[in-house]
């Protein structure tokens, strides 16, 4: 009887050791490590279709892979649609503001909420971004106010850093002075300058702007002067900064990110060099 009790005790001890040994392996295998995503942020009154051709080109050339569409409601609820494969080296996430007419201050709050969600759900620590038009202000405001994730590289297309035509800017009214500062400072520019002390250093930026060939030095919506005003506003906080001006048929405001192959190639080369 005593031997039987000893055998039972030995078996219980062996079982306990086995459970303790197995438990850390189980926990480790459950943790997924996702690659740094690229967020695709649309502009005012736009939506997920803004980046359809960009995503198609990325997948066709094996440069990037569509992962998710993140829909953010006016109630600050995030709905993630799609499947993010942790093995994808360059996952693409479309960011869609359901209320696509909200202010850039409001969009910045929503965007930071999304960054928190992605950090907590996918255990990531950094991201890249492509933004178009007013989406640039959403991104820059969000990152200057909070930074739950570190922004590494940003492709900013048609940045209305100092206003847009019909929204505070006029053709030929502004210019960059010899000291590098814009002659006129619109509300968007003031907001960016106000962010400068809190804007985290270290972001690499490619600033792409269009010249539609009509002699306006604009893409028909945002002047090149307005886009170039990004440098005096935040340039001292950026790790690197490059301008790219594209010309011709697909250099207009609504086609430059949707249809311009040169812009798409330049963006991918900059992001995934």
How would you characterize the overall build of this protein?
The protein has 8 helices and 10 strands. The strands form 2 sheets. It has an 8-stranded mixed β-sheet, sandwiched between helices. It is globular and about 90 Å long. The model is unreliable at about 20-30 (pLDDT under 50). The protein is of the alpha/beta class and about 270 residues long. It is about 35% helix and about 25% strand. Helix 3 packs across helix 4 (about 135-145) and helix 4 packs parallel to helix 5 (about 185-195). Strand 2 and strand 3 (about 80) form a beta hairpin. It has helices at about 1-30, 50-60, 105-120, 135-145, 185-195, 225-230, 230-235, 260-270; strands at about 40, 65-70, 80, 90-95, 125-130, 150-155, 165, 170, 205-210, 240-245.
What descriptors fit this protein?
10 strands
SSE layout and pairings?
Layout: H1 2-30, E1 38-41, H2 52-60, E2 65-72, E3 78-82, E4 91-97, H3 104-122, E5 126-132, H4 134-145, E6 150-157, E7 164-165, E8 168-169, H5 187-195, E9 203-211, H6 224-228, H7 230-234, E10 238-247, H8 261-271
Parallel strand pairs: 1-4, 1-5, 2-4, 5-6, 6-9, 7-8, 9-10
Antiparallel strand pairs: 2-3
């Amino acid at each position: 009887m005593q031997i039987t009790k000893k055998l039972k005790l030995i078996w219980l001890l062996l079982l306990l050791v086995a459970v303790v040994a197995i438990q850390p392996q189980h926990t480790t295998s459950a943790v997924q490590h996702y690659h740094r995503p690229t967020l695709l942020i649309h502009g005012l009154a736009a939506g997920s279709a803004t980046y359809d051709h960009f995503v198609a080109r990325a997948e066709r050339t094996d440069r990037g892979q569509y992962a998710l569409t993140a829909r953010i409601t006016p109630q600050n609820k995030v709905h993630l649609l799609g499947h993010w494969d942790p093995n994808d080296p360059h996952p693409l996430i479309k960011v869609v503001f359901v209320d696509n007419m909200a202010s850039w201050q409001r969009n910045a709050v929503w965007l930071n909420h999304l960054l928190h969600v992605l950090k907590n759900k996918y255990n990531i620590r950094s991201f890249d971004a492509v933004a178009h038009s007013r989406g640039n202000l959403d991104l820059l405001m969000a990152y200057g106010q909070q930074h739950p994730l570190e922004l590494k590289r940003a492709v900013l297309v048609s940045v209305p850093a100092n206003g847009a035509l019909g929204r505070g800017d006029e053709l030929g009214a502004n210019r960059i002075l010899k000291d590098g500062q814009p002659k006129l400072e619109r509300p968007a520019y003031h907001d960016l300058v106000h962010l400068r002390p809190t804007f985290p250093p270290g972001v690499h930026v490619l600033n792409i702007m269009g010249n539609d060939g009509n002699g306006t030095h604009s893409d028909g919506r945002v002047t090149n002067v307005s886009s170039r005003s990004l440098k005096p506003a935040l340039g001292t906080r950026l790790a690197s900064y490059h301008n790219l001006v594209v010309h011709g048929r697909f250099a207009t405001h609504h086609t430059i990110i949707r249809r311009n192959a040169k812009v798409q190639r330049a963006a991918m080369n900059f992001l995934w060099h």
